[in-house]
Amino acid sequence: MLRLSTVGLIAAVCLAEVLTMLGFSTFAALLPFFREAWGLSNTDAGWISAIFFAGYTLAVPVLVSLTDRIDPKRIYLLSAALAAAAGLGFAVFAEGFWSALLFRGLAGVGLAGTYMPGLKALSDHVGTEHQSRAVAFYTSSFGIGAALSFPLASLLAEGPGWRWAFAGPGAAAVLAGLLVLLLVPRSAPHHLRAPDTALLDFRPVLRNRSALAYTLCYTVHNWELFGFRSWIVAFLVFAGGGGGARLLDPTVIAAVVILLGMPTSILGNELSMRFGRRRTVALIMAASALLCFTIGFTAALPYLVVVLFCVLQGFTVSGESASVTAGALGSAAPGYRGATMAMHSTLGFTGSFFGPLVFGLVLDLAGGQSVLAWGLAFGHMGLVMLGGPLALALLRPKPLPGDRAPVAAEPADRA
To answer: Alpha helices, DSSP H only, in 276-370?
Structure first.
C-alpha cells in the first residue's frame, strides 16, 4: 500500500467520492425521457428519485454507526461493490417503474456505505487542525460527482443508449473501491473503540445540542438540495430547453449549477470559521429560501433569465453544506463520531427523500405543467428551508475549535 501525505490522502478519497457519485443524478438527467418512455406521472418520477434516498436513510444508521466499531474501509469496499451492482442491474434489468424503484433503492444503500464511511475513514487519518477543511473538500466532491453525472448520462444516452448511462457509473464505483483498497490505510485501534451504548442507541447524540442543531439544518438543506437537483432538468425543459443550443442544454446547465456548489461550499465553511458558523449558516439558508420562493415563477420569463436564477440557486443551495457537516462532526463527543455522523446522515437524507417526492406531489396537485405549479413546487422548499435558522436560534450551537471567536451578539456560543 502506498503511503500518502495528508494532502494526497484527501485527494485520493475525494477522487473516490467523485467516482461513486457518477450515477447519482443519472435518473434526474434522463427524467423527461423516462417520463415519456415509461408513461410516468410526476409523482411516479418523484418516487423513483426519492427511493434512492430512502435506501440511503434506511441503511445509514447501521452502516455509519458501525464505523465506531469496525474499520470504515471494509464497509466502504462492500458498499462500493453494491453500488456497482445496482448500476449494472439497472442497465440490464430495468423496464419500468417497479424495477427502476428496486435498483435505485439499492444504489441508495450503496451510497450510505460509501459517503459517510468514506468521510470517517478520512477523518481518522487527518489531524484536528485539518479536519474542517478536509470535510469541506470531501463534501464538495459529492457535488462534483453529482454534477458530472448529468452530462455523462446525457452523452451516454445519446450515444450507445440509456442503459450505458447506468452501466458506466457502475464501472466507476469499481474503480473507487480499488482506489480506497490500495491508498487508504486501515483505521488505528483508538479510532475503533466501541461506545458504551448499544449500536443504534442515539440518545447521547440527540442530547448534544450543537451537533443536533447542525443536523437539523442538514435535513432541511438536503430537502431543498435534492428536490432542486432531481427536478432542475425537467424544469429547464419546461422553461424552454435552451432552443437547441448545446451550451444551454438543460443537462449542461444542471452540471454547471451543481459544480458551483464546490467553491461555494468551501467558501461557506471558510466564512463560518471567520465570522461565526451559526450566523453564516442562517444567512445562507435565508437567502436560499428567498430564491426558492422566486425561481419557479421565472419559467414565464426568457430562458436565459431562468438559467441565471438557476445559477444563483446553485450558489446558495450548497453554500452551507460543508459548514453544517463540519459543525456536526466537530461537535461530536469522543467515541461517538460515527454515531453522530449516522444520525446526521439519517435525518439529513430523510430530507433528501421527501424533497424530490413532495416536489412531484405539489407539481401534480397544482396541475402539472404550468408556471404556477412550478412556482408552488419550488416555493414549498423555501418554507422548509426556514426551519434551519429556526433550529439554530433555538439550540444555539457552540463554535468549533478553529473557528474564530464569535461576536458579542452571540454570547451563548461562549457558554
So the answer is: 277-295, 303-317, 321-330, 337-365
